[in-house]
Amino acid sequence: MSDAKVRLYVEQPLGPGQPVPLTQDQAHYLFGVMRLARGAAVSLFNGRDGEWRAEVAEAGKRGGTLLCKDQTAPLRLPPDLWLLFAPIKKARTDFIVEKAAEMGAARILPVQTRFTNSERIRQDRLQAHAVEAAEQCGGTFVPEVADLTNLERLLADWPADRRIMWCDESLVGARAGLLEAAGGFEARGFEEGPKRPSPGPWAILIGPEGGFSEEEQARLRRMEQVVPVSLGPRILRADTAAVAALTLWQSVLGDWR
Amino acid sequence: MSDAKVRLYVEQPLGPGQPVPLTQDQAHYLFGVMRLARGAAVSLFNGRDGEWRAEVAEAGKRGGTLLCKDQTAPLRLPPDLWLLFAPIKKARTDFIVEKAAEMGAARILPVQTRFTNSERIRQDRLQAHAVEAAEQCGGTFVPEVADLTNLERLLADWPADRRIMWCDESLVGARAGLLEAAGGFEARGFEEGPKRPSPGPWAILIGPEGGFSEEEQARLRRMEQVVPVSLGPRILRADTAAVAALTLWQSVLGDWR
């Protein structure tokens, strides 16, 4: 950890002595909003080079430069986990992206399903939410937010080795756990013990309000990669389901173990 | 399930043939907003008598009456789990209450800690959020939202038999799992198997931004009921931590098993 009060995502490479020129927005935030002066410490990460302590070398109204000093944390990649979800109301979609970044998803894919209300998303705005979440939660990695993709097309080209944890509304109340369903993994996610092998590529699929269409359900059930999982006996809103599914996956198969 | 398009929480008793008079707000919602007419079905629950199918018997601008027909779901109580959290910004506090109701907390207690920003809460507004969440998620139970209580006072009278899953920021990245920490429960929360005994009274404690003070931490560590639990290697916002902790608890000890 660094003594910096501000954590900032930048796109430039980070390394010892590396100067980091600031955009106008960044300069406004650091010098106008946060009132940092020359010599003040800032924590930087770019999603590739870990976290670095930098100092303000030049501060201006429209720009400025930081100077990278020491690495304060190595790059920490999340497991190879994608989150697929059907965009819902704006605030809840923002929330899902923020939470997925906090919870350690590697890639976030908004998908268009039969019952998805949303025709389009603002990919740039969602990506900015992912950046902000990483800044806040001390992450050194920012998940990519993909453009809205049609679920059917996505599944048509689905990689053979990427399993899908399908959070299926029809399983509400059923006894379908992640572990028994995934098979091959021992159901002892929380025990102290030797590090188990990486679970390999996975995705979590969360449905829209109203669930999946019958065709979509049948399609998913036919896919060998798909692991239907219940999220308990209550119906969860999509945003709750996303956080709950990420928690289950991370605690059983991911980097919470 | 009922054919009703609307689920409504009411305070009156529910039973066969039971008339349910409506408040002005409820009448406005059912007849003004949702445009229900005489004979239309409404799903009712009151937190005590399960879910009932009722029909509109009288519809007026300022009131009306529903008539209870058949029970469509029994009362389903959540496990004896409290959620203690330090209120944060308004939107995130609302969110925590909504999620706690969805995830099956039995009681929600906003607590004032050393580093809690909030001096007061609107208990009535938070309770309304819990009701709305239960209406949306098909619950038949509504958790009580308590008034803001001082954590120190709460802990001074803490019941000897109620364990506290303490989500401790200082454990970020440590290997402290719920199961190994709780002890006595086998770490196989997701396996098919005979129903295990109820875990007894529990509470989840989520800290404010900035965490707990040193005095609070020392106090919690001294309590026999306290089980410190890590929520993975990333720092989570309080609202994320609440959903993640509820997921862990429900899947390992609660009614997701």
Automatic annotation (TrEMBL), chains A, B:
GO terms classed as biological process: rRNA base methylation
Reactions performed catalytically: uridine(1498) in 16S rRNA + S-adenosyl-L-methionine = N(3)-methyluridine(1498) in 16S rRNA + S-adenosyl-L-homocysteine + H(+)
UniProt keyword Glycosyltransferase, yes or no: no
UniProt xrefs under Gene3D superfamilies: 3.40.1280.10, Hypothetical PUA domain-like, domain 1
Domain Ribosomal RNA small subunit methyltransferase E methyltransferase positions: 78-250
The protein's role, per its UniProt record: Specifically methylates the N3 position of the uracil ring of uridine 1498 (m3U1498) in 16S rRNA. Acts on the fully assembled 30S ribosomal subunit.
Protein name: Ribosomal RNA small subunit methyltransferase E
Species annotation: Cereibacter sphaeroides (strain ATCC 17023 / DSM 158 / JCM 6121 / CCUG 31486 / LMG 2827 / NBRC 12203 / NCIMB 8253 / ATH 2.4.1.)
